[in-house]
Amino acid sequence: MLETLAGRTMASAAGRRIVVAQDTTEINFAGREANRRGLGPAGDGVSAGFFIHPLVAIDSETEAVLGLLDAHIWTRDDAAETVPRRQRAIEDKESIRWLKGVERAGELLTDAASVVVVGDRENDIYSCFARRPAGVDLIVRAAQDRALVEDASLFASAAAWPELTQMLVKVAPRRVGDPGRIATVWRFVRGFSRTARNAGVALRAGPVTLKRPRNGFARTDPETVSMTLVEAREINPPSNEEPLCWRLLTTIEVGDAAAAREIVRLYRLRWRIEEVFRALKSDGMRLEETQVHAAVRLFKLAVVGLAAACRTIQLVDARDGSPRPATDVIDPTLLPAAEAIGPTLEGKTERQKNPHPLHSLAWLSWIIARLGGWNCYYKPPGPKTMRAGWARFATMAAGFTIAEVLKAESNVRIP
Predict the structure, then answer these.
(1) Among 318, 303, 205, which Cα is nearest to 257's?
(2) What gap in Å lies between CA 153 and CA 205, rounded to an integer?
(3) Which terminus has fewer CB within 10 Å in the chain: N or C?
(4) Per residue in 345-357, is it b (16+ CB within 10 Å) or e — as a string?
């Protein structure tokens, strides 16, 4: 299944500048562990659960999700580790998933115009920087104040650099219901009505040469790695809020203010994978509540859920118009069903008619939204509407296909 999904995403990514977001989410069955089989401890070390580490491809220009590239799914062993973490090779740690994710992105996206893999602070791994495959760039939020060849620490280095520019960034709320600093909608997460705050930040950037750490490295890794640090530090933050400070390590050269802004913009696209996780869990399949018990089946269900979550986000992205074809999310054999269903959903007013080109992703998004209960007025359809609409469409498309087969059989003449 992953190969099929990756193939569709690779076709969509050909010739485009692609950002690949990778991150890990946990499926924790706390309180719902009865009869679960084959699962080790989740992140709390007690409850049964497993982990999902997907790669999601994003169009750099449109910022639209193109689909799922790959996913690593695993559960932890109940046996305690006998070798201290710092003494284990990276290949023997769960952290290897970050390196394999970068490697996999390079293998799959050979036809893309460019590939940039973005990761959060857990992706701050020296071996990941040192082993970066050719043709793949990185943007990783720094977690560790690393030693530099320049006889300084990473975090202190930017203080001496001149300010390149200032910009406004929209920052995600810490939790659902958090009003943020400014009551504005976080439009970056399309379809999720969550508030956020705007933060004015000053950008600084410069080259840095990282020293190989004293612990947790492979002797085959080089002693130094040259990268660029882009620091986005909040200006005059409110006294009751922790100041925003993003320190972004990248393999992309940054020579001016425009380049620094672009690094920040590309890093913000990492939040698209958070949307996929929400569509998989709280705003979608609610995978933690499944009645499936066996680990092998749960892992297969997780792949199905990831595919559905990506499709939901793609449909939300396309609701206001998209140059992408509908076949980004459905098989061509389902287009006749959508053609038949669409006109039945149109109303008498101009706003109740599908305004998008036939067979475009936006055209399909309109149909799915209508099936999900959207009335063409008021707020635009979000992930929950799209998910409900897709469930109805799948049922109707199956009925349409059966009807077409029976119709063809009834027209067969027996000599």
Answers:
(1) 205
(2) 15
(3) C
(4) beeeeeeeebebe
